[in-house]
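Two records follow; treat each independently.
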Amino acid sequence: GVLHPRLVHLQHLPHPAALSKIILLFQAKGIDSAVEMSWKDYFMRVVPTALGTALDINLSNASLVFITVTFATMCKSASPIFLLLFAFAFRLESPSIKLLGIIVVISIGVLLTVARETAFDFWGFIFVTLAAVMSGFRWSMTQILLQVCVMTNVIQMP
């Protein structure tokens, strides 16, 4: 029998961890140069990013039970809207007329593409929209995490 997709995904998780350690070994500073992160930083930055990623993936998968892949793809194209909204909320980006115009254009485009969907299902739409929200959240949190890493010299900028 086939394992549940989440269990199959769990089998893939050790590979990136091992590759990260190998890359650290070949870097100029070596594996011992890793900067320690406090538990507070870990729970404030890494855990929300991981939860946002997990919810994005699982809500996307759950939505496919109710809606077609085509409809899910159309709805997930709203992710940049939520990315910009979270960027405004976390003060990663300052609101401007240009960015608000981009949000309006994307919103109208998504609305036009999903307006005549024949296989519309309410719960599938809710799940995929929440997945798009989580996608925007996780990318904003990733940006915050990377900015902290650059400020603490974990990542060396050229």
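The next record belongs to a different protein.
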Amino acid sequence: MKGMKERLAKKIKLITIVSTLKQGLAHHKSKIDRTIHHIRDEIVAESGQRRGCVTPTLEDVEVSEQEHDLEEEEEREILLEFEEKCPPGGEDSIVFYTTGLRAVRKTFEACRRVRFLLENHMVKYKERDVSVDSEYRDEMWRLLGRKVTSPRLFIRGRYIGGADDVVSLNENGKLKKILVGFPLAHSPCKCCKNERFLICSSCNGSSRLIADDEETSNGNIWTRCRECNEKGLVRCSLCT
């Protein structure tokens, strides 16, 4: 009988200890929950303050406009340092004469360097491949008054120079400044996917058409397609 009483007393004591532990854990969990909610409220309040600051005031707008005007003025001053030579359609754009031929590695790599810098600044530019269209080559030679190799870069009707000149401008920070205001290139050209040329639909890329009756009478079976270049390609109207 005595042993049973002792075991019962131990069980009651154990139940009391377990109950106390449960209460302690519940109290501790409650404190943790309050701490979490407090931190969450602080984060929400802080993010709300940040969102509130996004709305620009009149003073902020005026400062932003002044900064933009200063950037444009600095761009014009830098461009005035370069010779005025404007390629067709290059009055307010970037025109880049390049080559896709790998025959001369030095020239090909120089073109790649300039293209990389333009793409790195994410600006839209008109790429004119002299290896695909000989008219681009003649156009470049006429602009510079001599036979030169690509790459050659023109910005807003000003001759910037070759690869070494463009790399130097990028290193001293001037290239970024003179590219201010140009539209950004977020995706490839919708028309040619940045290939710059399209296959001629008139001759299907052959650059030749069946001659008419008058030319056939002279012994000519074929005649030159006037819609494309010597490689049967037409220029993309959106990006060249």
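Discussion point: The chain is about 50% helix and 15% strand. How would you locate this feature using only the token line?
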